[in-house]
Amino acid sequence: MALPVILVVGNYGDGEITALLPGFDLIALASIADISSIEPSRRAAIAAVAYRGHHPFGSAEMDALPGLKIIANYGVGYDAIDVAAASARGVRVTNTPDVLNEDVADLAIGMLLSLNRNMAANAEWLARGDWTTKGDPPLARKFSGGRAGIMGLGRIGREIADRLVAFKMEIHYHSRSPKDTPEGWVWHATPQGLAAHCDYLIVALVGGAETRNYVSRDVIAALGADSVIANISRGSTIDEMAMLEALESGRIRGAALDVFECEPQLNPRFLALPNVVLQPHQGSATIETRKDMAALQCANVRAYFAGGALLSPVN
Q: Each residue of 251-306: pLDDT tens digit?
C-alpha cells in the first residue's frame, strides 16, 4: 500500500518534520507559489500539506492539488489560507493555538519595557562610551501603574493582560462582547472607546479581512498624546500609514511592533523613527515553542490519517 503523500511547505529545521512524520511520503517545497514545479502525477497524489508560510494559499493552489484532504498550518494565525475555499472543497484546516501564547505575551511585555526604559538606546550609549564622556543617559519612562488596553482579549490577549496585572496596570479591553474577567477589568464596546481610556494599546487580534485596519485612523486619533501602540498580531490589523503619521508628528509617544503590513520589506519610515521598538515577527521564535508548534501541526496530520479527531481544527 502506498504511503500517504504530504507536501511540506516552508523553512523547517533539519529533520524536524521528518522525525515527526515517520511513515509518510514527504515532498519539500520552499513556497506554495512553487507548486507547479512538482510533476503533475506526483502532485495529484498529495493528500496533506504541512504549511509554514505567509504566501496566499487559495483556490488556485488547492485546485492544483486534486487529492488534498487537509492543510495543517504552522502557527495560530491562518489568514494566508482561504478557509472558505478549503471548506468548499472538503479540505480540513488546522492551526497551532495555545502552544505559543506565553512566548508572544512575553515579547509584548519585553518590547514595552524596552521602549519605556530606552533599553536599546541606553545599550548604544554605553557601547559608544557616552556614559564615560557624557554621564548618565536621558531619563526613561515608568512602565508600572499605567492603563493597558487590550484590543482582542483572546488567548494571547488574556496572557498579556495577566502579565500586566503584575505591573499594577489598570486593565481595559475591547472584544465583541464582555468576557469572564477578574473584577475591575473594563470592557469597551468600541475600539475608539478603548483607545480613549488607555496608555498602552496592545493589539492582539486575529488577522484576516475582518480585522484589516481595525485599529483605524479614528482609533489612533482617539489615543492620548502620551499613548503607545504595541502590535503582536498582524500588520494588517492597524492602519499603518495613520500610525506612521502619528509617530512622526509626535501625536502619540511611541510604538512597539513585531509585525508589519509588508513583511519583511517594512516601510523605511519606521527605521527613521526614534520612538519605536521594532522586531522581525519573532513572537513565537523560541526553540521550545517552535518545537511544540511543529509537534502539534504534525499531530493533526497523523490524527487525520488515523481517522481520529483533529486536535485543533479551524473548519
A: 999 999 999 999 999 999 999 999 999 999 999 999 999 999 999 999 999 999 99
State the catalytic residue, choosing from 52, 234, 253, 302: 234
Could you say which of 212, 217, 251, 281 is catalytic? 281
- Structure pTM? 0.91
Based on the structure, what is the number of domains in the chain?
A: 2
Burial of 186 (0-12, 13-18, 19+ CB in 10 A): middle
Whether residues 65 and 106 share a domain: the answer is no
Residue keyed to cell 513572537: 283
Looking at the structure, do residues 302 and 254 belong to the same domain, yes or no? no
Q: Same domain, yes or no, for 163 and 266? A: yes
Asked if residue 270 belongs to a domain, the reply is yes
Is residue 39 part of the annotated active site? The answer reads no
Evaluate whether residue 220 is within a structural domain.
yes
Catalytic annotation present for 281: yes
Assign 67 to helix, strand or coil: coil
Q: Under a CB-based contact definition with an 8 Å cutoff, are residues 56 and 41 in contact? A: no
155 is catalytic: no
The H or E element that residue 188 is part of is strand 186-188
Find the catalytic residue in 124, 248, 263, 288. Answer: 263
